[in-house]
């Protein structure tokens, strides 16, 4: 509750700053006050329509509410966050959009955030290969041997 009071105080001093609304929205989301959080993220986007933080944190709040279509639309904003370590900065090739044919192409599957990404998405390698693609897996060192054995 102290943090909430401080965030409200900060917002009163900087009501015209998208970041202040994002901070309060993020805190409200953590307190399971999702409707209040979404209002703050919407206000942030009115101030700065390009706010990656507002789009991303809003998407996380929508994910927790089960609003998958709206959540996934904003979730891509994570790629625009400063300091994002999602792997896209290491790989210059275009991302697959899910629609283009994979026949004869090479697809790199890599973890975006953590070890659990590897565990979650390595299972899709055979499905990508079944669409005619060669699959290259980039995995964290702890999983290298396990993935080689699973082939």
UniProtKB/TrEMBL annotation:
SUPFAM superfamilies (alphabetical): TPR-like
Pfam (any one): TPR_2
Gene3D superfamilies (alphabetical): Tetratricopeptide repeat domain
InterPro entries: TPR-like_helical_dom_sf, TPR_2, TPR_rpt
TPR repeats: 18-51
Keyword Repeat tagged: yes
Keywords: Repeat, TPR repeat
PROSITE patterns attached to this UniProt entry: TPR (PS50005), TPR_REGION (PS50293)
Protein name: CAZy families GT4 protein
């Amino acid at each position: 509750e102290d943090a909430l009071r401080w965030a409200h105080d900060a917002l009163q001093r900087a009501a015209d700053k998208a970041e202040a609304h994002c901070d309060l929205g993020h805190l409200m989301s953590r307190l399971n006050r999702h409707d209040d959080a979404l209002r703050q993220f919407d206000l942030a986007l009115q101030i700065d329509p390009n706010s990656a933080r507002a789009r991303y944190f809003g998407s996380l709040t929508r994910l927790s509410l089960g609003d998958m279509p709206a959540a996934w639309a904003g979730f891509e904003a994570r790629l625009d966050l400063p300091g994002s370590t999602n792997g896209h900065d290491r790989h210059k090739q275009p991302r697959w959009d899910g629609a283009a044919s994979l026949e004869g192409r090479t697809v790199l599957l890599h973890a975006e955030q953590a070890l659990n990404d590897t565990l979650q998405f390595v299972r899709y390698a055979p499905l990508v290969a079944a669409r005619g693609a060669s699959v290259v897996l980039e995995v964290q060192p702890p999983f290298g041997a396990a993935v080689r054995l699973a082939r």
